[in-house]
Amino acid sequence: MNFRKIMFKRDPAFGSLFENMVVAEAYKARANEGRDPGLYFYRDRYQNEVDLLYPSGTAFIPIEIKSSAPSGMNF
């Protein structure tokens, strides 16, 4: 494996950069389809959050963005 790839994945900013890239791609995809991107995130007063609320008809699809594989079903 490439040493630079290993170091990049260990960088503390990697998760934030990955999340930003996913949201940017979702935004571009909707804009290129001529739709209002209408992307949101959600955080409550207990700091629980949903990374991306993706519009689908009259509802939203909640999306949790992770840069690593989940360790189990409880994330």
Fold and architecture overview:
It is a single chain. The chain is an alpha+beta fold and 75 residues long. The chain has one domain (3-63). The protein is built from 2 helices and 3 strands, in the order ααβββ. It has helices at 3-10, 14-32, and strands spanning 40-43, 49-56, 59-63. A 3-stranded antiparallel β-sheet has the order 1-2-3, covered by helices on one side. The chain is globular, with a radius of gyration of 15 Å. The two termini are 28 Å apart.
What's the topology here?
Elements: H1 3-10, H2 14-32, E1 40-43, E2 49-56, E3 59-63
Antiparallel strand pairs: 1-2, 2-3
Number of domains: 1
Shape: globular
- Which runs of at least 5 residues are low in confidence (pLDDT < 50)? none
Annotation, overall tally of beta strands: 3
**Helix amount, in percent?**
25-40%
Look at the structure and give the mean pLDDT: 84
Which sheet architecture does the biggest sheet show? 3 strands, antiparallel
Terminal CA distance reads: 28 Å
Strand content: 15-25%
| Helix count from the secondary structure assignment | 2
The neighbouring-strand order within the major sheet is: 1-2-3
Order of helices and strands: HHEEE
Secondary-structure-based class equals: alpha+beta
Radius of gyration: 15 Å
